[in-house]
TrEMBL record:
Name by which UniProt lists this protein: Recombinase domain-containing protein
Keyword field: DNA recombination, DNA-binding
CDD domains: Ser_Recombinase
SUPFAM superfamilies for the chain: Resolvase-like
Recombinase domain location: 183-298
UniProt cross-references to Pfam families, sorted A to Z: Recombinase, Resolvase, Zn_ribbon_recom
Taxonomic placement: Bacteria, Pseudomonadati, Pseudomonadota, Gammaproteobacteria, Alteromonadales
Species annotation: Paraferrimonas sedimenticola
Annotated GO MF terms: DNA binding; DNA strand exchange activity
Secretion signal, residue range per the UniProt entry: none
Record-linked Gene3D superfamilies: Putative Large Serine Recombinase, Chain B, Domain 2 (3.90.1750.20), Resolvase, N-terminal catalytic domain (3.40.50.1390)
Length: 389
């Protein structure tokens, strides 16, 4: 059965802060979608796409934009569909030739691109496509130059703050907010790097628990029973997923715990030894690293090096109950199972259960095999079908 062409939206914003407010609202303008839907007689798709990152870097191909391209090439987004963006620089701010290649890649696959800023439709059936693309090329060149200027301005601002070394009346360093993001136990809302009133003492308590050689699972269970967890950025929305093993597992890795921060700007490193209030001493930091390293070696020797799952660690499995990531575990019979990481850590908000890995993997393999043979029998390339599956 042929898929129905629909109207899809794609937006890209430069920061997670925008995602919580007007940034996404403006760029996925419902009125623009409805206008296109009425004008071209196509239904609006239930799914929209957006990335919280700068398209000036090629990393955006790993996000929703990469999914859009994959769906277009696999047929998941039907030909004659329309992809609505605010303007062409939403697609890419890489070099202009690469940006134009992305636009051509979409329209050559039969999917049209509509820019809401000027009401222009890009289609391979356009008799004036060559002239339209020349104008677009000039437009994207200008957008690319503006992005470079903005990037240099951002780095220049960060560098001036670092060199200036300004501090408030309490001695807290001025925050370098234009690059990087402050960890959950620090508060930079005042413009200076201050300890978070609620979470900083918790971070200090975690240090103590790690130094007591408490397991990650035990620490998560304790924190979830006593403290509200910081909200994390998940799928462009800040949500509460409790104290997860990922948060605690990575906790001891950052030298910022000692107050030291390293900024890398245009290949040069700038180290500020007292950039942030210290959660622990340098001695405690290295003690934590030694404890975690020792425990990791023990764990690796006993269990984790002996098995692996086909689907874990690649971001395709999520818990149907809470949306958390799925992790691999061994049951008492030494069989691999998939289990929600939040449920594994006894988070109250997740009641998810585990499932045999072989059941999930067998189902996925069967679907992929069906797609492969169907595509081969019809004399078409199977690559897109596998990606769609």
């Amino acid at each position: 059965m042929m898929k129905t062409p629909k109207v899809y939206s794609y937006s890209r914003i430069s920061s997670a802060k925008q995602a919580g407010g007007t940034g996404i609202d403006q760029q996925t303008d419902r009125e623009a979608l409805e206008k296109v839907s009425i004008e071209y007689g196509l239904p609006i798709a239930d799914e929209s796409f957006s990335d919280v990152s700068s398209g000036y870097h090629a990393k955006h191909l790993d996000g929703d934009f990469g999914r859009v391209l994959g769906l277009i090439e696999s047929g998941g987004i039907a030909p004659e569909s329309i992809l609505v963006v605010s303007n062409l620089d939403r697609l890419s701010r890489q070099t202009v030739n690469e940006a134009m290649a992305q636009l051509l890649r979409i329209i050559n696959a039969g999917v049209r691109v509509y820019t809401s800023i000027d009401g222009k439709l890009y289609s391979k059936d356009d008799a004036n496509l060559t002239a339209t693309l020349i104008v677009s090329l000039i437009y994207m060149e200008r957008a690319n130059e503006e992005s470079q200027v903005k990037a240099k301005r951002t780095l220049g601002n960060a560098l001036s703050i670092i060199k200036e070394g300004a501090r408030d009346a309490d001695g807290y360093h001025k925050a370098v907010r234009s690059i990087g993001r402050a960890p959950w136990y620090l508060d930079v809302t005042s413009g200076f790097v201050r300890p978070h009133k609620y979470y900083f003492p918790i971070a200090q308590e975690i240090v103590g628990l790690v130094l007591q050689n408490q397991s990650i699972k035990a620490i998560c269970r304790y924190l979830n029973s006593k403290y509200e967890a910081p909200k994390i950025n998940s799928n462009r929305k800040f949500v509460d997923q409790g104290w997860s093993d990922t948060t605690i597992r990575r906790f001891h890795l950052s030298k910022l715990l000692t107050g030291e921060q390293t900024f890398t700007i245009e290949g040069a490193e700038y180290v500020i030894s007292d950039y942030a209030p210290a959660v622990c001493s340098e001695s405690e930091f290295y003690q934590m690293a030694a404890i975690r390293s020792k425990n990791a070696r023990k764990s690796g020797n006993k269990r984790t090096t002996e098995f692996d799952g086909l689907l874990n660690g690649i971001g395709v499995l999520t818990c149907g109950w809470c949306g958390g990531s799925m992790t691999k575990v061994l049951d008492r019979h030494q069989k691999v199972r998939y289990r929600c990481a939040n449920a594994f850590n006894k988070a109250d908000y997740c009641k998810g259960f585990s499932v045999k890995a072989e059941l999930v993997e067998d189902a996925v393999i069967r679907v992929c095999a069906d797609k492969v043979w169907t595509a081969k029998d019809s004399g078409t390339d199977a690559t897109g079908a596998i990606q769609a599956a």
